[in-house]
């Protein structure tokens, strides 16, 4: 009976203390939820004004940025993915039709990122995947490597939020507990996530040092993409394809 927990613990292969305590067949621990992988919430509701066209639809080597991010999340072993759309939703929804994700629409995207987080968390908490931790991933911040994500998971046990840090700079994705999710959902739409964590979870937020510069990536302008393209692919020579240029001409 206990052996059924063992295959679920691949995410903790670099966290032996957690494995011995909770996930080992010899631990005697009988709650499978501790070993279930978190949900992933991708924020795609922004206007992309500074970039000039919808960032999720940027085409790189035949794939959109949205496809690239989702594929990287799946390759790290996470399959419960929710994408929040708002601005440019018609075009982004066309892209999402062929991707294995749950879709959540923020009809008030003009209210800002916090409202998109609330929208996505409500969708997650109305699904069978509720009560699990959630990674919050902006579309314009590159998804880090699997080792980084797993390290964040291993550090969530005694706190309610874990934030990656690279060279003393805080980054994404933020990993939050169900307690934080409940507070976010019931908060005012004009609130901010950093304020909520500071005011209600001051001693329950942990910063974890990681050796992964992706966590501080931020693609707001064309030059930002040029800066980070080596992380997307070492073989990218021409970042913008003809299709991407066509998108720019329409926005």
Fold and architecture overview:
The protein has 251 residues and is of the alpha/beta class. It has 2 domains: 36 residues, no CATH class; 213 residues, Spore Coat Polysaccharide Biosynthesis Protein SpsA, Chain A, CATH 3.90.550. 34% of the residues lie in helices and 16% in strands. Strands 1, 4, 5, 6, 7, 8, 9 and 10 form an 8-stranded mixed β-sheet that branches. A two-stranded antiparallel sheet has the order 2-3. The radius of gyration is 18 Å and the shape is globular.
Key terms for this structure?
single chain; 251 residues; alpha/beta; Spore Coat Polysaccharide Biosynthesis Protein SpsA, Chain A; 2 domains; eight-stranded mixed beta sheet; two-stranded antiparallel ribbon; 10 strands; globular
The multimeric state of the shown protein is single chain
Please give the radius of gyration in angstroms: 18 Å
Unreliable stretches:
1-14, 16-34, 234-244
Distance between the termini: 56 Å
Helix content: 25-40%
* CATH class annotation of the largest domain: Alpha Beta
CATH topology of the largest domain: Spore Coat Polysaccharide Biosynthesis Protein SpsA, Chain A
Q: Which second-level CATH architecture of the largest domain applies?
A: Alpha-Beta Complex
**Number of extended strands:** 10
Major sheet, described briefly? Answer: 8 strands, mixed
Under CATH, the homologous superfamily of the largest domain reads Spore Coat Polysaccharide Biosynthesis Protein SpsA, Chain A
Number of helices: 9
Structural class: alpha/beta
């Amino acid at each position: 009976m206990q052996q059924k927990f063992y295959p679920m613990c691949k995410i903790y292969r670099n966290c032996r203390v957690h494995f011995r305590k909770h996930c080992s067949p010899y631990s005697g621990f009988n709650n499978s939820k501790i070993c279930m992988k978190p949900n992933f919430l991708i924020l795609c509701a922004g206007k992309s004004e500074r970039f000039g066209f919808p960032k999720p639809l940027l085409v790189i080597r035949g794939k959109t940025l949205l496809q690239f991010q989702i594929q990287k999340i799946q390759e790290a072993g996470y399959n419960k993915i929710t994408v929040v759309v708002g601005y440019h939703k018609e075009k982004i929804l066309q892209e999402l039709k062929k991707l294995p994700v749950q879709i959540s629409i923020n009809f008030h995207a003009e209210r800002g990122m916090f409202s998109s987080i609330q929208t996505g968390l409500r969708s997650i908490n109305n699904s069978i995947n509720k009560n699990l931790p959630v990674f919050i991933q902006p579309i314009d911040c590159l998804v880090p490597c699997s080792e980084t994500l797993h390290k964040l998971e291993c550090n969530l046990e005694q706190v309610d939020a874990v934030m990656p840090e690279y060279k003393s700079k805080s980054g994404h994705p933020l990993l939050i507990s169900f307690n934080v999710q409940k507070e976010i959902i019931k908060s005012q739409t004009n609130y901010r996530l950093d304020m909520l964590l500071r005011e209600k979870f001051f001693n329950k937020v942990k910063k974890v040092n990681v050796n992964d510069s992706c966590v501080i990536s931020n693609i707001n302008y064309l030059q930002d993409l040029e800066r980070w393209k080596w992380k997307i692919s070492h073989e990218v020579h021409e970042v913008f394809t003809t299709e991407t240029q066509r998108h720019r001409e329409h926005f």
